[in-house]
From TrEMBL:
Record key words, sorted: Hydrolase
Coiled-coil positions: none
Protein name: Alpha/beta fold hydrolase
InterPro entries recorded: AB_hydrolase_1, AB_hydrolase_fold, Sec-Metab_Biosynth_Hydrolase
UniProt domain AB hydrolase-1: residue ranges: 4-237
UniProt xrefs under Gene3D superfamilies: alpha/beta hydrolase
Length: 246
């Protein structure tokens, strides 16, 4: 049976996967949850140069130190870049990449580049004014913001996010991956939460190089907001477990 390595998105630590990991382990799966450098209990380990390569190294270290093979490597949201980089570095150990409400980015593209220009400007302003020039502050997680993004979250979920999230090393948002040979040649799946598979297929067929990788991906639909490990942990675990059982 494949081992699952779960990598959280921006502002999160391994704690974000607690409910999903519990479900997977109860079904007999081997699960490793990752806290990336500079986040959660590792907040004190980051420096000014902590970026994408440090997070790739974190993931590779978990896989190699635990002697894992046939890994189902799961990345949520902004973890799309480091899980792609880890798979490119050790492709022989990766059985499948799974992107949770995110997708691989083209070579050289950073997470910030994928966002609307207004969001990019807001992030840079927040980092300069509140993040000492190197930290992306935790969002307010208020329902007055993007209700679609927060769909399915209870008030208790929102309070938990506000309490436990930590600022994100900003270089991880501004650094892209150099992929001279293209995306890793491993099977890839996408669990779509804020988009439907039909919408993703339309993007894939649009001819834009940005969405070209979607055409070859195995698509799954888990309708909820952008944080399914909180809003629908049982269903997410079932989806990931099914992919691991292939």
């Amino acid at each position: 049976m494949a081992a699952l390595v779960l990598v959280p998105g921006f502002w999160l630590g391994a704690w974000a996967w607690e409910d999903v990991a519990r479900e997977l382990r109860s079904a007999g799966h081997e699960v490793h949850t990752v806290t990336l450098t500079g986040l959660a209990e590792r907040a004190g380990e980051a420096g000014p140069g902590t970026g994408v390569q440090a997070h790739i190294a974190d993931i590779v270290r978990v896989i190699e130190d635990n002697g894992l093979q046939d890994v189902v490597l799961v990345g949520h949201s902004g973890a799309n870049v480091p899980v792609t980089g880890a798979a490119a570095r050790i492709p022989g150990r990766i059985a499948r990449l799974v992107f949770v409400d995110t997708a691989p980015l083209p070579s050289g593209m950073a997470v910030i580049d994928f966002n609307h220009p207004a969001t990019q400007e807001r992030w840079r302003k927040e980092v300069a004014e509140e993040g000492d020039g190197q930290w992306l502050p935790v969002p307010p997680f208020e329902r007055t913001g993007d209700a679609h993004d927060l769909a399915g979250l209870t008030d208790e979920h929102l309070a938990r996010l506000r309490e436990r999230c930590t600022p994100q090393p900003f270089a991880t948002a501004t650094e892209g991956l150099d992929l001279p040979h293209g995306l890793p040649a491993v099977p890839s799946s996408l669990v779509a939460c804020t988009f439907t598979p039909g919408q993703l297929r339309e993007l894939a067929a649009s001819g834009s190089p940005l969405f070209a990788p979607l055409a070859g991906m195995d698509l799954h639909h888990l309708p909820t907001g952008h944080w399914p490990m909180f809003s629908r942990p049982v269903e997410l675990a079932m989806t990931l477990g099914g992919l691991a059982d292939r």
